[in-house]
Amino acid sequence: MSRPIAVGVDGSDGSLAAVDWAADEAALRGAPLRLVNATRWAEHQLQAVRVSHEDRASQAEGVLGAMEERVRSRRPELSMTADEIEDSPASVLLEAASRADVLVVGSHGLGTAGGFIIGSVGQEVVADAKEPVVLVRPDYREDAHGTPGGGQRRVVLGLDVADARDELMEFAFDYAARRDVPLHVVHSWHAPFFHRHRSSADAESGTQAEMAAALAKVVRPFRDKFPAVKVTEESAPGRPAGWLVEAAADARLVVVGRRRASSGSHIGSITHAVIHHASCPVAVVPHG
Fold it and tell me: Taking every annotated instance into account, which residue ranges of this chain make up the domain UspA (predicted)?
């Protein structure tokens, strides 16, 4: 039996959206769905508003029950489990991720400057999870067939041709193939200063052609593996995070990578920017 799609639930708007996304993903994969709720929030609460173990357990049971009903209404065919776990939220989510193919969590809503807040727990989970983590915005809307408002929308994959990882491409191509939607692969780089001068136009053109050829080369094996996926490629100088956030404006999912650190936790600057500013769900795929 395939491993489940796990989703963290806490009753927030982001959590509701995450449950919908996770249910759709589980149905399309033919995988079971696992709902998890952490009841030990003491380190995240002020002393004055802490609640008893019994109250936390009762609240968790109510939240999980409501989410089970939501899933049954949306995807009645799914095999589903719901677990209330007495531990810190990050520990619960990381344990769930270790036993799942994908972990899905909700963002904490709109932040300043049009960005999103994933909170300290979400950032810890993204930085430490060994499996892909999908962050879903509170305004995520797709019907029970996985069709977003506005019809088909593409998947965007951010790729570094100097460190192109199979894990990222496999995730993005597989997602696009199962939903029969286009895939747009984006690669950008910081152009050297001299390339911005008119006298070096030929050098800049040559560099862009080389980068486009390199991108095509690393993508080609996955074009062959997923021949039904319509793929477009974009390679241009600029700031990678800005390009990805802009490309994701009309996407249903943007896929980025995170290098597994040998010690400590780390989210790269590009991935950090994308998860805070992309307007669609973001899949962070660990590699290395």
Answer: 1-137, 153-286
Whether 147 is covered by a domain: the verdict is no
Q: What are the pLDDT digits (tens) for 15-74?
A: 899 999 999 999 999 999 999 998 764 444 444 445 455 555 556 678 899 999 999 999
Element (H, E) at 203: helix 201-225
Q: Is 37 within 8 Å of 10 (Cβ atoms)?
A: yes
Contacting residues for 221 by C-beta, under 8 A, at least 6 apart: none
pTM over 0.70: yes
- Residue 126, domain member (yes or no): yes
Render pLDDT for 185-200 as a digit per residue (tens, 0 to 9).
999 876 654 445 445 5
Provide the 8-state DSSP code for 39. Answer: -
Judgement on whether residues 132 and 158 belong to the same structural domain of the protein: no
Rounded CA Rg of the chain = 20
How many Cα atoms are found within 13 Å in the side-chain-facing hemisphere of 197? Answer: 5
- The span from the CA of 25 to the CA of 31, in Å, is 8
DSSP structure string for 94-160: HHHHHTSSEEEEE---B-GGG-B--HHHHHHHHHH-SS-EEEE-TT--B-TTSPBTTS--EEEEE--
Owner of token pair 């920017």: 273
Q: What is the mean pLDDT for each group of 10 consecutive residues in the chain (288 residues)? A: 90 89 95 90 44 54 90 96 91 95 81 53 89 90 56 87 92 96 90 50 70 94 98 90 89 92 72 90 92
